[in-house]
C-alpha cells in the first residue's frame, strides 16, 4: 500500500473523541514520516462542505458513542464523505458504559463511503453528561493504549498487508437498536426533547452558541431553539457554569449512570 498522508477527522463536542483520534493518527504519521492533517467537523458550517479522499490517504474517522451507536444526527453527513479507496480507521469514544455497536456501525459507514478499513478502536473519555463518570479520562494508561494502537497499525502497514475485507471490530451486525435509558420501574426515559436552560450566571459571552455542534443556540438570547443532542458542549464550555439541564428523567439517568458505571472500563482496539 502506498500512503502519502494521514488524516485525523472527527466530531467532538467535548473533546474526548478529538484526543483519541488526533493522538493515534499523529503517532502513525510520525512513525511513517508522513504529513498529518486535522479535519474537525464538529461545527455545522464544516459539515456543509464536501470532503473527499484519495487512495493514498489514511483516514482516522472519529465520533462519540451516543446510545450505543454512531450519533444518528451525523448519518446524513457521514454518508456524503467520499472515501475514494483511502485506508480507513474508525475510532469511537465512549463514556465508560459501553460502545455497543458504534464501532462496527462506523466501520460499515466507512466501507459504504469507499474506504478500505484496516483497524478500529474504542477509547474512554469523560462522559458528556457528567464531571464524575470517567473523570480524568483519557488518562496516562489510556494514552498508552492509544500509542499501542498506533504502533500495531504501523506494524501492519510495514508488514506488507493488503486489503481484502473490512477490518474486524467488536459489535453485532445487523446493528442493534439504540440503547434506551430506563427508570427504576423499567419504563423507558425519553430525553430526546430535553433542552438546556440558562441561569442568571450567564454573562452573555455567546460561547454556547459558537460551540453548539447543531447550531441550535440563538446567539441573541442564548436559548436552545432547535434540536439538542445532549452533547453538553454548551454546559461544559460555559465560563460561568450558566447552562444546565433540570429535566427529572435526564437527571435520574445521569445519576444512575454515575452509580452503575463507577468501575473502570477499558479501551479496546482491533488491528
Ligand atoms: C446522548 C448521549 C448518549 C451517550 N451514550 C453513551 C453510551 O451509550 N455509552 C457510553 O459509554 N457513553 C455514552 N455517551 C458518552 C459519550 O460517548 C462520551 O462522553 C464521549 O467521549 C463524548 O465525546 P466528545 O468528548 O468527543 O464529545 C453518551 C453521550 C451522549 C451525549
Automatic annotation (TrEMBL):
Sorted UniProt keywords: Iron, Iron-sulfur, Metal-binding
Taxonomic lineage of the native organism: Bacteria, Bacillati, Bacillota, Clostridia, Lachnospirales
Database matches in InterPro entries: 4Fe4S_Fe-S-bd (IPR017896), 4Fe4S_Fe_S_CS (IPR017900), EFR1-like (IPR047964), Flavodoxin/NO_synth (IPR008254), Flavoprotein-like_sf (IPR029039)
Protein name (record): 4Fe-4S binding protein
Transmembrane segments: none
Domain 4Fe-4S ferredoxin-type, residue spans: 192-222, 228-248
Flavodoxin-like domain segment(s): 6-154
Keyword Magnesium in record: no
Amino acid at each position: 500500500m502506498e500512503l502519502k498522508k494521514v488524516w485525523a477527522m472527527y466530531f467532538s463536542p467535548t473533546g474526548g473523541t478529538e484526543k483519541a483520534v488526533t493522538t493515534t493518527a499523529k503517532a502513525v504519521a510520525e512513525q511513517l514520516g508522513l504529513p498529518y492533517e486535522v479535519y474537525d467537523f464538529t461545527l455545522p458550517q464544516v459539515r456543509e462542505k464536501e470532503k473527499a479522499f484519495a487512495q493514498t490517504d489514511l483516514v482516522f474517522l472519529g465520533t462519540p458513542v451516543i446510545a450505543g451507536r454512531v450519533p444518528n444526527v451525523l448519518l446524513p453527513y457521514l454518508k456524503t464523505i467520499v472515501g475514494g479507496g483511502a485506508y480507513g480507521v474508525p475510532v469511537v469514544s465512549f463514556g465508560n458504559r459501553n460502545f455497543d455497536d458504534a464501532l462496527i456501525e462506523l466501520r460499515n459507514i466507512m466501507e459504504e463511503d469507499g474506504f478500505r478499513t484496516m483497524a478500529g478502536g474504542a477509547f474512554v473519555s469523560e462522559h458528556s453528561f457528567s464531571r464524575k463518570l470517567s473523570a480524568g479520562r483519557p488518562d496516562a494508561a489510556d494514552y498508552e493504549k492509544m500509542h499501542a494502537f498506533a504502533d500495531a497499525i504501523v506494524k501492519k502497514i510495514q508488514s506488507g498487508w493488503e486489503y481484502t475485507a473490512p477490518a474486524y471490530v467488536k459489535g453485532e451486525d445487523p446493528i442493534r437498536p439504540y440503547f434506551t435509558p430506563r427508570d427504576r420501574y423499567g419504563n423507558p426515559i425519553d430525553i430526546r426533547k430535553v433542552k438546556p436552560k440558562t441561569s442568571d450566571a450567564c454573562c452573555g459571552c455567546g460561547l454556547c452558541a459558537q460551540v453548539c455542534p447543531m447550531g441550535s443556540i440563538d446567539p441573541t438570547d442564548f436559548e436552545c431553539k432547535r434540536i439538542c443532542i445532549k452533547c453538553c458542549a454548551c454546559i461544559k464550555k460555559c465560563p460561568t457554569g450558566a447552562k444546565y439541564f433540570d429535566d427529572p428523567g435526564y437527571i435520574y439517568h445521569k445519576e444512575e449512570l454515575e452509580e452503575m458505571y463507577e468501575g473502570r472500563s477499558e479501551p479496546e482496539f482491533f488491528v
